[in-house]
Write a structure and sequence with these properties.
- By secondary structure, the protein is an all-alpha fold.
- Helix content is about 60%, strand content about 0%.
- The chain has 13 helices and 2 strands; from the N terminus they run αααααααααααββαα.
- Strands 1-2 form a two-stranded antiparallel sheet.
- It is globular, with a radius of gyration of 21 Å.
- Pfam families: HGSNAT_cat.
- InterPro entries: HGSNAT_cat.
- This is DUF5009 domain-containing protein.
């Protein structure tokens, strides 16, 4: 796959095409690789703190992975749908892709029991589907200024709803796990039978908190439009760095009265994660597409161009492996994934937390091998 596919140009010249930006594929791939890493530790009981989610308020690097991906969805929309306002059938294609993503996520929740009475309805792919649908339609029907107004309306409106509106059955507004307004929506609309089982009565990818998640996608769209402008590359990067710093600072300030919280996807969390994503993409764009420093980039590009495929299969395959039981010498049975981890990955490590990390890294490296082969063969599975 040649460099020309990405429209790479001499140093100092912006190097994007309408559909491909090497730094964007790199940033997406880095995000997906991190997602695979944190979702597949060797042992869930032994995980380094930065690879876990914050218990409630606050954030860890792991909490930034999903919003980074939604931000990238927003950026990608501006390249994929540039000029799409004049094309017939584009809305139908958007709806079809959104339904496909939602059904893939629902399938992961169904598998392997396929019990409709207790299946979790929301999920990561489901939220991606909804954010993609909403942001794509907003992009097609509004200007950048109008998108900024919608972003502000979503963030301010969500903040007021969560901190001012009394929660039915509780009697006052609050941000506690089981009694906040977003949790109430989940209980009423989804019922406790169809939410995230560890949370029991609410869902971290629930209905109401998807609204500010759309704001994360809009931040990505505004960033994508800026990168598509005709301004000099150095000016675009400088202003994007400045904007990223300001947005991040705004999120930290808002944290003082609307805490950063990934599970609630608070407005302060949208700004913090969005600002940091802007900084990450600005750095990637400057180094890769402008300065043409591409050493070590292509492995992550391989993840990036098949992002949904690797996320879906990296969730499905371990579940299939756990259905295949292997009997150990002592007579106990283990799922094949657990068996391989205990007998081949963990033994060389004295510290169980390092063994757990090694298990996650092994999983990522296996996927790298698969995706690198697909990349070299130009196999891109589009959803």
């Amino acid at each position: 796959m040649g460099d020309g596919q990405y429209g790479l140009k001499p140093v100092g010249t912006p190097s994007y095409t309408s559909t491909r930006l090497l730094s964007l594929d790199f940033f997406r791939g880095l995000t997906v690789a991190a997602m695979v890493l944190v979702n597949n530790p060797g042992d869930w009981a032994h995980i380094y703190a930065p690879l876990e989610h914050a218990p409630w308020n606050g954030w860890t690097p792991t909490d930034l992975i999903f919003p980074f991906f939604l931000f990238i969805v927003g950026v990608s929309i501006t390249f994929a749908l540039d000029g799409g306002k004049a094309k017939k059938g584009v809305v139908g294609k958007i709806v079809k892709r959104s339904i496909t993503l939602f059904l893939l996520g629902l399938f992961l929740n169904f598998f392997p029991k396929f019990d409709i009475s207790v299946v979790r309805i929301p999920g990561v792919l489901q939220r991606i589907a909804l954010v993609y649908l909403a942001c794509s339609l907003i992009f097609l029907k509004t200007s950048s200024r109008q998108q900024l107004y919608i972003l502000c309306g979503l963030l301010v409106g969500y903040w007021l709803a969560m901190t001012v509106v009394p929660v039915p059955g509780v009697g006052y507004a609050n941000l506690e796990p089981e009694t906040n307004l977003a949790a109430w929506f989940d209980r009423v609309i989804l019922t406790p039978a169809h939410v995230y089982k560890p949370a029991k009565v609410w869902d971290p990818e629930g209905i109401f908190s998807t609204l500010p998640a759309i704001g994360t996608g809009i931040l990505g769209m505004l960033t994508g439009r800026w990168l598509q402008s005709n301004r000099p590359a150095a000016e675009k990067v400088a202003w994007l760095f400045a904007a990223g710093c300001l947005v991040t600072l705004a999120g930290l300030i808002w944290h003082g009265f609307f805490p950063i919280n990934k599970a609630l996807w608070t407005s302060s969390f949208v700004l913090l994660a969005g600002g940091l994503a802007m900084l990450g993409l600005a750095l990637s764009y400057w180094l890769i597409d402008v300065q043409y420093h591409t050493w070590g980039v292509l492995p992550f590009v391989a993840f990036g161009v098949n992002a949904i495929t690797v996320f879906f299969l990296s969730g499905l395959i371990p579940r299939i492996m756990n259905l295949i039981h292997i009997t150990q010498p002592d007579g106990t049975e283990l799922g094949s994934k657990e068996y391989l981890y205990r007998n081949f990955i963990a033994p060389p490590f004295a510290d169980p937390i390092n063994a757990s990390l090694a298990g996650a890294l092994t999983f990522v490296l296996i996927w790298f091998g698969i995706l690198w082969w697909m990349y070299r063969k130009n196999v891109i599975i589009k959803v």
